[in-house]
User: Fold these one by one.
Assistant:
Number 1:
Amino acid sequence: MSVETQKETLGFQTEVKQLLHLMIHSLYSNKEIFLRELISNASDAADKLRFEALAKPELLEGGAELKIRLTFDKDAKTVTLEDNGIGLSREEAIAHLGTIAKSGTADFMKNLTGDHKKDSHLIGQFGVGFYSAFIVADKVDVYSRRAGLAASEGVHWSSKGEGDFEVATVEKAERGTRIVLHLKAGEEEFADGWRLRNIVKKYSDHIALPIELLKEFHGEEKDKPAEPEWETVNRASALWTRGRTEVKDEEYQEFYKHVAHDYENPLSWSHNKVEGKLEYTSLLYVPGRAPFDLYQREAPRGLKLYVQRVFIMDQADEFLPLYLRFIKGVVDSNDLSLNVSREILQKDPVIDSMKTALTKRVLDMLEKLAKNEPEQYKTFWKNFGQVLKEGPAEDFANKEKIASLLRFASTAGDDGEQSVALADYLARAKEGQDKIYFLTGETYAQVKNSPHLEVFRKKGIEVLLLTDRIDEWLMSYLSEFDGKSFVDVARGDLDLGKLDSEEDKKAQEEIAKTKEGLVERLKGALGEQVAQVRVSHRLTDSPAILAIGEQDLGLQMRQILEASGQKVPESKPIFEINPAHPLIEKLDAEPDEERFADLSHILFDQAALAAGDSLKDPAAYVQRLNKLLVELSA
């Protein structure tokens, strides 16, 4: 290596120091994964070169055959990995090897649990795979030159994995990157051809460019060839181009870990080749866990896009709708040009057709998972259910299909688990029931104990209990399923249709007539606080409840809008009373109008609290309650 110039020592970013400490103390439970990480990075470097060379062929510098090479030296105790991909400039080496992933640094450290096995799953997800080299090495040297730069602009980056690293300018004739790992004492097993070959076959067989290992020759010196000989130790063909019957499950799983930077197996995958009017291949995966930025709708997402097996871009987000942003995988098209850009993608009608087909394929894959592997689907729902709930608002064409994949808690269970499918709910529905009943609220305890459910419990009618922040918004787009309309049991005038007998309806009308005087008194006492006062058909045990007007926003939506600083349209609740309750009977018999007003306000405030709302004037409520307690104790 030629003389180094412009040598300087720089400190690692604080988070990198913490990370290196974890690495050096065996964060990985499986040390050999370091090689998978470095090979994945080399593969990405080759992909980036192919992409940039579409516009600037001179970057290939006359060498279009891309490869990764592995060598080792048992005596020196080193393992060397070299690629002829895009390479790094001096500035890029400092930026990429001295910080974690540029973004997500704080998130990475925040997600660390202290459990080495769990924490190892985070590596890669945050772009920190390079640092896995320090699991087996006590010193790492990186020699690199970015394609297009002069040979004199090579860079040598070196670190012992402690507080700092050195960087210097060197002469490097070939573009690309060479990483030399100086193995720690006790890690010499990796300076072995058989060991390296097995690791490559196990983790990196799917890599689409050749991984070459220097052939070993034993015996007499004269038997060695004059030039070094290399053998390709992986298949070196794009996995998605092979037939489904040719690919083992383990290969699909390892490829997922490569494209998703994940350390757990996917829940499911779908490999499909389309021929005819459109020609493309897709390999789509449902991850086993949610990424840290799942709920950041503006976060990078999408599939890896290839055109005729040439890598074009990471995170092409035009092929799937936003509510399926958790899906990982690749799509390889024969119908797009090699110089395709994001702007062209957004305007190409071929993309719309592919998006429609790929969306349907993902929903079919989820439907199959729910049907054949319900336990796996539970895991999926726990991780991605809230994101899937964005679907009915975004994808009208697939609304019914998405609705069939949704899961809810209901009064049929007592654990709050979201496990009830709409098809299951309808299968259990009462004879004559033509509605799907639901109730939204902030917590499971609140909705499970809501007075709004009393008549449903009495009649044995199942009600869906919705407690996710998104649920009320979801139900504003989900009007029906399988021909049955959704009904919010806390909204409007409850009509149970055929579930109420004619005798029940007649009795309700007669009771309402007898309480007309009480209703008028309550209207006078509560005044502008209520839109209406009426006799309730919902209650069996509670004295009163608040119902929402048919066109009014529910409490959940009001709170979301208020939290985001938006103006919320004014609305007043409907105050419903249970005429058979002893408190209402006492209230009706109260001759003192001032005391009647105090009791009316106490009942109104209690109904608001039971609905999960906050009181407009808590001090007045406490004052009235204290006054009542004093009277009772006198």
Number 2:
Amino acid sequence: MNPITTEESALLSLDELAARFGAAARALWPDADPVVQFEPARRPEFGDVATNVAFGLARVARKKPQDIGGEIIARAMEDDRVRATVSQATAIAGFINLTLQPAFWQRVVGDVLREGDAYGRGNPNRERVSLEFGSANPTGPLVIVQGRTLSIGDTLARAMRHAGYDVFTEWIINDAGSQIGALGRSVYARYRQLFDSAFPFPDDGYPGDYLIPLAESLRARDGDRWLHVPEAEASEVFAGFARDAIVAEQQAVARRFGVEYDLWQSEQALHDAGTIERGIQRLREMGVLYEKDGATWLRTTDAGDDEDRVVVRSDGRPTYFANDIAYHYEKLQRADHVIDFLGPDHHGYVKRLDTLANAYGKPGAFEVVIVQQITLKRGDEILSMSKRAGQLVTLAEVIDEVGVDAARFFFVMLSTDQPLTFDLELAKRQSSDNPVFYVQYGHARIASVLRKARESHAAQLAAAERGEGLAALAEPAELALARRLAEFGPTVAGVARARAPHRLTKYARDVASDFHQFYDACRVLGDDPAVTTARLGLAIATGTVLATTLALCRVSAPDAM
């Protein structure tokens, strides 16, 4: 790899530029405490990066932001290293806009070539994060709702790790509620129907055909044994059998989908270990519980809830919320921050978890990310989905039809607060209007260029891999692509901070678009060895960033399409 040149060593980073522009502002207005942060400019013709610091200084300086921006620029440009890094600085509509020297962006390409898939990785920040996502009742196969939360949660976990967080992923097996009893009765009915098709199915059961193979397995193992024992006894056994089989299937599908959890936590195991009772006792000792009408209540109204919540019913049975109390206390023992992904019908849990965090002396430690609903369609046809009605489109079926790559990319494309419509036909289409195909084709195109280079420009390819000759990058399309590569680290950091993994899919599409424009505008394998070397270096760097972005989404980066 080539060493850093004297010219490159004189260049400032964006953080260093921000610090020097901030110092210039403080020198002009000592009573102010300006925060300068450079972001990509709103429009390319304005420059490469911009900051809105002048707007925040308007009240202190008692001047128009446009005039403030001009004064800051004049002061900052007195610095030799600022002038070495910035080719043009202008104040436009109150924003300070900078156009950076081509060497700045050439250095970015060199950084990618030197660091490889570690490019953009943040330093460990020592923040331990518990991330729970995808959890589903163990009463049936995973469906597309879990497909979305699996994709979003796992992508966020990968991005947060890349950004420097210590992330621990969890799945709660909801096997201690009334739904397990209903599951047992449903399997029992399916078992009896193998011997008598007229045997009635319970009204609160799960009518999907997915329980029939479980009943057949029980018959193959035990014959007619369960015809001769009380229904309640058989149903309890069947509930445990079905729960174990369904959880094993859920785990297998999650692994197939590229998701591995650090912990699969059984809710029933928390009960069996006495964790629930100990959690309630801790809150009682903290003085945040009270008795009313024979029940035990938690003062969730202190955190803004519309009413206090029952923890222990008047008959002594703990509520589902009591399970959360214990489980979240367990999470806090191994994490500084707890993030739960929940469905759109769980808004009420936010205030309750705030109450727990306050009671445990860690205000703000709990965070809920609400994931909106998903609609599945095939072309113009909307597909119905209801576990209770027996109408299921399983995640495994979606994977079979469109593949892991398309499913994961599509599931994570929109923000969690937006409902998602997943078009199976679009996900399978091999054309540029299919976003995952478009991005993967960009990586495959880069791989194709490099394969050709090994045959026709081997010397230039070897030099490019060493990061040599990047000073030849000067065309607008080249520098635009390099600027996009520079956004990778800040993009991942922003994904981690905002819990916004959908930004990664947008970034991947932007990188692919910029590469396609570069490829169309600039001949990579040409007659000029210096230019060819530089452009191959840019292509290699782009392939690296694109592959790393896709890897964070757990989507493959193919070398051929």
